[in-house]
Amino acid sequence: MSDVAARVGVSRPTVSMVMRGLEGPSEETRRKVLLAADELGYAPDTSARLLRRQRSLQLGVVFTMREPFHVELVEHLYSCAAARGYDLALGALTPTREQDRVVEELVSHRCEGLILLDTESGTAPLGAVAAHLPAVQLACPVADKSLDVVRSDDAKGIRQAVDHLVELGHRAIAHVDAGNRPGAAERRRGYRAGMKRHGLAGHADIIPGDYTREAGAAAAQQLLERTGRPTAVITANDDCALGLIDSLVRAGVDVPGDLSVVGYDDSSVARLPFLNLTTVRQDAARLAELAVDAVLDRLEAGRTEARKVTLAPRLVVRGTTAPPA
Amino acid sequence: MSDVAARVGVSRPTVSMVMRGLEGPSEETRRKVLLAADELGYAPDTSARLLRRQRSLQLGVVFTMREPFHVELVEHLYSCAAARGYDLALGALTPTREQDRVVEELVSHRCEGLILLDTESGTAPLGAVAAHLPAVQLACPVADKSLDVVRSDDAKGIRQAVDHLVELGHRAIAHVDAGNRPGAAERRRGYRAGMKRHGLAGHADIIPGDYTREAGAAAAQQLLERTGRPTAVITANDDCALGLIDSLVRAGVDVPGDLSVVGYDDSSVARLPFLNLTTVRQDAARLAELAVDAVLDRLEAGRTEARKVTLAPRLVVRGTTAPPA
DNA sequence: ATGAAAGCGCTAACAG
DNA sequence: CTGTTAGCGCTTTCAT
Question: For the whole model, what pTM was predicted?
Answer without folding.
Answer: 0.94
